[in-house]
Structures are given as structure tokens and as C-alpha cells.
Design brief:
The chain is an alpha/beta fold. The protein contains 19 helices and 18 strands. The longest helix has about 80 residues. The protein is elongated and about 145 Å long.
Length: about 650
């Protein structure tokens, strides 16, 4: 069943058409990924979906009552004070209902016997509503999401929201989206600020939950693992594809080739018809030529595939070849305040190595890179560049981009001898053309600042590149262009990235954080991933076996306890039966005594026929009661003997 449908949507900002002819349908349970160049309109699509922007033309149909979770860019979280409250902000109405139930329960306890039927009915109705809305699973779901995103659920209940960093605040926003009780989740670059382990958790979580998903992401591996449909935003329109990112790339190439062939074929037909018309319009076949001209005028012309402009063109300049030992690290110890980040790390980076530095957020990856390049002093040990080695550093915070300067001035300061044409050509390779080069760096988006940083990095010849999250804020095409540039680079590279496809393509070695230690793995990132997956599988098997043994022990204990409870219940039942039989004996004896007294009363026999009849009934009851007493005495004796034998 379709829950969202776009039909021939056009969006205009003044005289500018952002896109037109946008048509696609999202069915319940589908997972859609949206890709396209930065500025193509991906986030605008989200605004159309959630209703915060209306199209100039076309129709958007949403399922009635459709609930959506959208990350508020301001991240105000409804005024929440703690991390847990912010993560549970999607349950505002349910939390309010829970508080109302708590107040009602307290009032019912106070009223006691004065509780009215209306009070009980209202309490029951609210309880039913709370249960139906998933209220009893609220805390467990929020705790699970917080745990998966790297927060301690217990600590989150008291940790002030105001104490979070920007990256942590982004993760809380993601938690609020994932935990919310909704039908459609809209995620805009959810893997930014997440480490590899957390991205793996997010992938598993999205695979397990049942809500429909639409995600904007440049993480190709994440898209391949998560979505089953792709929406490509390009050429001021969108095209839908089935499958993940890899399937999209293949289908897009095939579709483009087929369209190019159709356009070429039509052009041949049109040219042939136009030639016939020119040769015959004034001759003997004039009528036929005029007919062909009319048909040709009505023929719908095929358009060539929409162009997207050239992707970034990145070429890193290698410095003069240095020694084979590019970076030597000896018993390095790195600290941050009182905390030890890296302990006793020794290794050698050799010429041509491409090293992926991986570890959880907060492990100290950026601090380690700064220490390796001499920006920070090590607590002990040493890291030194080899002879003739020049290093270039891409910082995650992009502080290498000068503040309050034009993009043009940033390049001119490094290349003072370049002409305006040289600078324009260089910046054109990074997506800046025309008046864009005069924009001030203070007004740039994150992706634009990253492209300026890369444009500056390529100007410095280096035989060691240290790249700290270079793919953040870049669109997919730019990430692929960066890949191409690094594949052609002849120097050594140490890089930090959460983009697994990027690391799989490039890394020939892996430095993996393991607490305070760094494991230096000599194989590719793909091989390291496989090894980690195998180790994780072994760990799961071991835990399952331990859990199974523990559960078996617990099962035996439960069986023994059940047997004890059964024996106790049997004895209690026997005691109750013996007591019941004893009461039956006493009751029978009392009735017999009563009947005997009645039969011994002389007045009974003075009543004539009626007295005789009554005496007969009493005598029969006495005989019956004596038999019942005998049976009760026998059963009571047996029950008493059985109890004494236990």
C-alpha cells in the first residue's frame, strides 16, 4: 500500500526552477535512498515530504494519519532537559499520558472506598490507550537506541542535554528519530559523526525495525546494506531505481546508454526525413514531402540524458621521492589530560602504504594524527618523519581553510604567481566556477569548505597525506573523485573515515584501536573486516554456549525448585484434605449425637402417626450418618498416616 506519492512535482524559488517532473511512489515497508550532488535539492525533497514546503505545481498524496520522524536541524527537542528526555521526545503525548495515569492511581488510592465507577472507567480507558500505543515498551526502546548510539541509558536520565558536543547532539537527534513511534522515518546523512561500530549497529537496527525509511546519504556501503530503492536527483529532476547503490550505478549506466542510443537513432531518422523534404518539397513528390514535414513537426523529440556537470577532478602532487621509511613510530604514548589514549605503539609506515585508522568515536584518532605530525607532544616515545618526507594534513574541523577570505584569495595566497585564469581553472576542478570563486569562506556550507580544503591540499607537494574524515559533507560523486585521486597518488596515506566503501577501495593496512592499544593489521581493510566478522561470530558462538550452559544450570535449578514447590503443594493439599476429613468426622459425630437425642425424646412417640413417621425418618438418617462417619474415619486415618510417613 502506498503511503507517499509525488506526481509531476515542480519546485521554484523565484525565477529559478530547482526541479520539475518529480514523480515517485513509496509503499509501506520500503527503504529509499536519495543521492545527488550537493545543492541538487535532496533536503528540499524532505521538506516537501514532511509538508514544510509546498510545490509550485503537482500533487503530493500522503496516507491519512501518516506519522513521520524528521530530525529538527535546530535540535530543540521540545525543551527536553536531559539526554533521555530528548531521545524520548517523540513520545511526548505518551509520556504525558503516563504522568496522568500516575496521578490517577495516586488519587484512587486516596479515595479508597469513595472511588466512583466513573473514576475506575476513566483509569481503565487511559490504561488501555497507554498499552495500545506501546507505552509499556517505551523505556526499553529508548534505552536500546541510546545504547546502540553510544550513550549509557542510566546516565542519560540525568545527563544535561546542554553538556553535549555538536556530534553528540546529532546522535541524540538520530536517537529521537529512531525511537519515535512513527510510520515513516526521514534520515538526512545519519552516518555523519558515527564511528564504524555504531554504523554497523544502525544498519542492523534499520534492518530489524518495520517502519518505512527514506535516507539521504553519501555512504555507499550503508546504502547497499540498508535500502531497496534509490532516487537519483540530477538534471533538475529525479529518477527512481530498484535496489541499493551498486544496483543503481549499474542501472543508471545502462539507462543512460540506452537513451543515448535512442537519441542517436532518432536523429538519424530526422536527418533522413529532412533530407527527403529538402529534395522533394518543390518537385514532383511535393505533396508527399509536405506530408512528411507535417509528421516530422509532430514527432516528440527525445532529449539526451541530463548533464550534471563535471565531478571534482583531484590530483595530488607527490613531493620528491623520500626514503622507504615514511614515518617511524617508537613506543608512542598519547594522552589527553589524565586519560591515556594510546599506549606503547610502535610501527613503521612505508612508501606506498594506505593505512586506515579505525576506532570508536572518542578513542583519540584525531589526537593521534596531530601527535604523529608534531602538532601535539607525545606523553612518551616518538614519531618522526623519514628523510625527505613532506606531509600534508586534511583536518576534520577544516581549520586549514582561512577565515573571512574569498575562495579566490585562499588559492592566490598559496600560488601568488598564478594568473586569474590559472586560479579559475584550478577551482573549476573542485566545483567552483564564475562568481562562486568570490564567495567568502565564512558563508560556505560544510561540503563547500571541504572542497576548498581539498583544493588547497592538492597545491602542496607531499609524499605523506594524513586525511582526517575527508569524506564528511561530500556528495557521492565527490567521494568517488577523491578515491580516484588517491588511487593515482604515488605517496603514502594515513586516513580516518567512517565510509566503509571508501576504505575498502583504498586501504592496504589497518590500525585498529583496541582500548589503549593499537593493533597494526598488515592486510587490506576488506580482509580486516572479514577477520573482525569471523571473530565476532566466534564470540557470539562462545557467548551462546556460555549462555546455554548457564541456562541449562538455571533450568535444572528451576526444575528442582518446581519439584520442591510441587512437593510442598502436595503436602499442603494433603494437610488440607486431612483437616477437611477431620471436620467431616466431627460434623458426623455431632449429627449422630443430635439424632440420638431426638430419637430418645419420649415426646416424639406421643404424636401418633406423625410422630412415628418422623421417628422413621430420623432413624434412617441416623443409619446413613453412621455409615458416612465410618467412611470419613477411614479416609481421615489414611490421610493422617500418609502425612506422618512423609
Amino acid at each position: 500500500m502506498a503511503i507517499l506519492s509525488f506526481s509531476d512535482i515542480t519546485v521554484e524559488f523565484g525565477a529559478t526552477t530547482l526541479f520539475s517532473g518529480v514523480t515517485f511512489t513509496v509503499a509501506a515497508g520500503e527503504r529509499w535512498g536519495i543521492v545527488g550532488r550537493n545543492g541538487a535539492g535532496k533536503t528540499t525533497l524532505f521538506r516537501l515530504i514532511d509538508g514544510s514546503l509546498m510545490p509550485a505545481r503537482g500533487a503530493i498524496v500522503r496516507q491519512p494519519g501518516l506519522r513521520m520522524a524528521v530530525l529538527d536541524q535546530a535540535r530543540v527537542f521540545g525543551g527536553a532537559a536531559t539526554v533521555w528526555d530528548a531521545a524520548a521526545s517523540g513520545y511526548g503525548d505518551l509520556v504525558a499520558l503516563e504522568h496522568r495515569l500516575s496521578r490517577q492511581a495516586a488519587r484512587l488510592a486516596e479515595l479508597g472506598d469513595r472511588v466512583t465507577a466513573a473514576d475506575l472507567e476513566r483509569f481503565g480507558r487511559d490504561q488501555e490507550q497507554f498499552a495500545h500505543a506501546g507505552g509499556y515498551g517505551l523505556e526499553a526502546r529508548v534505552d536500546a537506541v541510546l545504547q546502540g548510539l553510544g550513550f549509557d541509558p542510566a546516565d542519560a536520565r540525568t545527563r544535561p542535554l546542554a553538556s553535549l558536543s555538536g556530534g553528540e547532539r546529532s546522535r541524540v537527534g538520530l536517537a529521537a528519530q529512531l525511537a519515535a513511534p512513527v510510520d515513516l522515518v526521514l534520515l538526512d546523512e545519519p552516518t555523519n559523526h558515527l564511528d564504524l561500530e555504531t554504523i554497523e549497529w544502525l544498519k542492523r537496527y534499520l534492518g530489524e525495525f518495520g517502519e518505512t525509511l527514506i535516507v539521504i546519504s553519501h555512504d555507499r556501503a550503508f546504502l547497499d546494506d540498508t535500502v531497496d530503492h534509490m532516487l537519483h536527483v540530477a538534471g533538475r529532476t529525479t529518477t527512481a531505481y530498484r535496489g541499493g547503490y551498486t544496483a543503481f550505478v549499474t542501472q543508471r549506466a545502462e539507462r543512460r546508454l540506452a537513451l543515448e542510443r535512442q537519441v542517436a537513432q532518432q536523429r538519424k531518422v530526422v536527418a533522413k526525413e529532412e533530407d527527403y523534404i529538402r529534395r522533394n518539397i518543390a518537385g514532383r513528390n511535393s505533396a508527399q514531402a509536405k506530408g512528411r514535414r507535417a509528421r516530422l513537426a509532430r514527432l516528440p523529440r527525445l532529449s539526451p540524458p541530463p548533464g550534471e556537470g563535471e565531478a571534482m577532478s583531484i590530483r595530488f602532487a607527490a613531493a620528491e621521492r623520500g626514503g622507504d621509511q615514511v614515518l617511524v613510530i617508537e613506543r608512542l604514548r598519547v594522552t589527553a589530560g589524565q586519560r591515556c589514549l594510546v599506549r606503547d605503539f610502535s610501527t613503521v609506515v612505508r612508501r606506498g602504504d594506505v593505512i586506515a585508522l579505525v576506532g570508536p568515536n572518542g578513542a583519540g584518532k584525531s589526537t593521534l594524527l596531530a601527535t604523529l605530525l608534531g602538532a601535539l607532544e607525545p606523553a612518551s616515545g616518538a614519531a618522526r618523519l623519514g628523510a625527505g618526507v613532506e606531509a600534508a594534513w586534511f583536518r576534520q574541523d577544516l581549520t586549514q581553510v582561512p577565515e573571512d577570505k574569498t575562495i579566490y584569495e585562499c588559492i592566490a595566497e598559496v600560488r601568488g604567481g598564478w594568473t586569474r585564469g590559472h586560479i579559475q581553472n584550478h577551482l573549476g576542478g573542485f566545483g567552483f566556477s564564475g562568481d562562486d570563486v568570490q564567495r567568502n569562506t565564512s558563508a560556505l556550507s560544510g561540503g563547500e569548505r571541504a572542497r576548498v580544503a581539498l583544493a588547497l591540499l592538492t597545491l602542496r607537494p607531499a609524499n605523506l597525506l594524513v586525511l582526517d574524515e575527508p569524506t564528511n559533507d561530500l556528495d557521492v560523486e565527490s567521494v568517488e573523485a577523491l578515491e580516484d585521486g588517491l588511487e593515482d597518488y604515488e605517496g603514502s596515506v594515513v586516513l580516518v573515515s567512517h565510509d566503509r566503501a571508501f576504505l575498502r577501495e583504498l586501504a592496504t593496512r589497518v590500525w585498529a584501536f583496541d582500548g589503549e592499544r593499537i593493533h597494526d593489521y598488515g592486510g587490506t581493510f576488506v580482509e580486516w573486516e572479514r577477520q573482525e566478522a569471523e571473530q565476532a561470530a566466534r564470540d557470539r558462538t562462545r557467548r551462546a554456549q556460555e549462555t546455554g550452559a548457564h541456562q541449562a544450570t538455571r533450568s535444572e535449578a528451576r526444575k528442582a525448585a518446581a519439584a520442591r514447590r510441587e512437593a510442598q503443594e502436595t503436602r499442603r493439599s494433603a494437610q488440607r484434605e486431612a483437616e477437611s476429613l477431620e471436620q467431616a468426622v466431627l460434623a458426623a459425630e455431632a449429627r449422630i449425637a443430635e439424632l440420638e437425642r431426638a430419637l430418645a425424646d419420649p415426646a416424639l412417640y406421643e404424636g401418633g402417626a406423625d410422630g412415628a413417621l418422623k421417628a422413621g425418618r430420623l432413624s434412617a438418617e441416623l443409619t446413613k450418618t453412621r455409615r458416612a462417619l465410618d467412611e470419613a474415619l477411614a479416609r481421615w486415618t489414611d490421610a493422617s498416616d500418609a502425612l506422618e510417613a512423609e
